[in-house]
C-alpha cells in the first residue's frame, strides 16, 4: 500500500541561515532548551523578562519599558509584562548570554529576512532577538477576532532583517500554505505566522459551553499564501492538565471553586423547599 501523498506537508522546522548571517548561537538541551547567543563588542540582545540563565562578565543587563505606541498600555491592562530585558556587551571582547525556555518545548531560530522582514507571533512565543529586530504589540483590528484573553487580543509583530528566537511547546511543525490553501487549527497551537496569511477566528458556542461545560477550544481558519508554525503542546493546555491532575489527586475548595458554589446552591434550594413546605402546611 502506497504512503499518502501531501503536496505541501507539515514539516519539522529546520533553520537555514543566509550567507551573510553573522549571529552566532547554540541551542542545547532536550525538553527544556537553553539558547546561548554570542555578542560582539557594542552588540545587544533583547529578551523576555525572567529568561536569563547566565551571561559573561562583560555583559550589562538593563530593563527597557515598552512605549505607549507599541502597545505597552494594552499589555499592562491585560496583566502582561510591559518591560523587556536588554543585554549589552560593553567590553572589547566577545561575550555571551544564556537564555532559557520558560516551559518544555523547542526554541526556534528565525531569520526574518527569509520571511519578508515581518512575522506575527503569540504573546508567549517571543524569547529574544538581536539588534536589527524590533518587537511591537498590536491589537487585532477586526472585532470578530477579539476574544477574552490577552493571547487572543494581542499579537506581537517582529520587524527587521535580523535574528529572532521563538519558543513553542512540545513539538513544532511548519506548514507552507499555497495561495488560497485553507487549514483549520487550534488558535492556541499557532506559534507564529507570516503577515501574508489571512487569519479568521471561529467562535465556539459560548452558551452551550457555559451550560454543559467543556474546554474552550478556539479554532482559526488560515488562508495562504504564507508559512505558519504550529506547536503540539501550548503552555496553557499543559497548565490545565497539571491543575486538573492536582484536583483529582487531592480536591479542595481552592482547586475547585465550583464545588463551594454547588454546596451553597444545594443548601439554598433545600432552605427554600423547607420554608415553602411549612408555609403550605400552615395554609
Which keywords apply here?
2 domains; 20 strands; alpha+beta; single chain; extended; 283 residues; Double-stranded beta-helix; 7-stranded antiparallel beta sheet; 6-stranded antiparallel beta sheet
Outline:
The protein has helices at 72-77, 150-153, 206-212, 235-249, 257-282, and strands spanning 10-12, 25-28, 34-39, 44-47, 52-55, 59-65, 83-89, 95-100, 105-111, 118-121, 126-129, 133-139, 154-160, 163-169, 172-177, 182-186, 190-193, 198-202, 219-223, 226-231.
Could you explain how this protein is built, in words?
This protein has 283 residues and is an alpha+beta fold. It has two domains: 13-233, Double-stranded beta-helix, CATH 3.60.160; 255-282. Helices cover 20% and strands 38% of the residues. It has five helices and 20 strands. Strands 1-15-20-17-10-13-12 form a seven-stranded antiparallel beta sheet. Strands 6-7-4-11-14-9 form a six-stranded antiparallel beta sheet, with no helix packed on it. Strands 2-3-8-5 form a four-stranded antiparallel beta sheet, with no helix packed on it. Strand 2 (25-28) and strand 3 form a beta hairpin. It is extended.
Number of helix segments? 5
Strand line-up across the major sheet? 1-15-20-17-10-13-12
Please identify the structural class as seen in this structure.
Answer: alpha+beta
The CATH architecture category of the largest domain equals 4-Layer Sandwich
Largest beta-sheet characterization: 7 strands, antiparallel
Distance between the termini: 81 Å
CATH T-level fold name of the largest domain: Double-stranded beta-helix
Calculate Rg over CA atoms: 24 Å
Strand content: 35-45%
CATH class of the largest domain: Alpha Beta
N-to-C series of helices and strands: EEEEEEHEEEEEEHEEEEEEHEEHH
> Domains counted in the coordinates: how many?
2
Mean pLDDT: 76
The gross shape turns out to be extended
Low-confidence stretches: 141-151
CATH superfamily of the largest domain: Mitochondrial biogenesis AIM24
**Helix fraction bin:** 10-25%
InterPro entries: AIM24 (IPR002838), AIM24_sf (IPR036983), Trp_RNA-bd_attenuator-like_dom (IPR016031)
Protein name: Altered inheritance of mitochondria protein 24, mitochondrial
Pfam families: AIM24 (PF01987)
Transmembrane segments: 259-280
Amino acid at each position: 500500500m502506497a504512503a499518502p501523498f501531501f503536496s505541501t506537508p507539515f514539516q519539522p522546522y529546520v533553520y537555514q541561515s543566509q550567507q551573510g548571517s553573522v549571529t552566532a548561537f547554540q541551542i542545547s538541551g532536550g525538553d527544556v532548551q537553553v539558547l546561548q547567543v554570542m555578542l560582539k563588542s557594542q552588540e545587544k540582545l533583547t529578551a523576555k523578562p525572567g529568561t536569563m540563565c547566565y551571561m559573561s562578565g562583560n555583559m550589562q543587563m538593563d530593563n527597557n519599558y515598552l512605549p505607549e505606541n507599541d502597545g505597552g498600555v494594552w499589555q499592562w491592562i491585560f496583566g502582561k509584562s510591559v518591560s523587556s530585558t536588554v543585554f549589552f556587551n560593553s567590553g572589547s571582547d566577545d561575550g555571551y548570554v544564556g537564555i532559557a525556555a520558560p516551559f518544555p518545548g523547542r526554541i526556534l531560530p528565525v531569520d526574518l529576512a527569509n520571511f519578508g522582514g515581518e512575522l506575527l507571533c503569540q504573546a508567549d512565543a517571543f524569547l529574544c532577538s538581536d539588534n536589527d529586530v524590533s518587537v511591537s504589540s498590536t491589537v487585532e483590528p477586526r472585532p470578530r477576532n477579539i476574544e477574552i484573553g490577552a493571547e487572543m487580543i494581542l499579537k506581537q509583530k517582529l520587524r527587521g532583517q535580523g535574528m529572532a528566537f521563538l519558543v513553542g511547546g512540545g513539538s513544532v511543525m511548519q506548514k507552507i500554505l499555497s495561495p488560497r490553501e485553507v487549514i483549520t487549527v487550534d488558535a492556541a497551537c499557532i506559534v507564529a505566522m507570516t503577515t501574508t496569511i489571512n487569519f479568521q477566528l471561529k467562535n465556539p458556542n459560548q452558551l452551550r459551553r457555559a451550560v454543559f461545560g467543556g474546554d474552550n477550544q478556539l479554532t482559526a481558519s488560515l488562508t495562504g499564501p504564507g508559512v505558519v508554525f504550529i506547536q503540539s503542546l501550548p503552555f496553557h493546555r499543559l497548565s490545565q492538565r497539571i491543575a486538573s491532575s492536582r484536583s483529582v489527586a487531592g480536591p479542595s475548595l481552592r482547586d475547585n471553586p465550583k464545588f463551594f458554589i454547588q454546596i451553597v446552591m444545594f443548601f439554598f434550594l433545600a432552605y427554600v423547599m423547607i420554608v415553602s413546605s411549612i408555609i403550605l402546611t400552615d395554609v
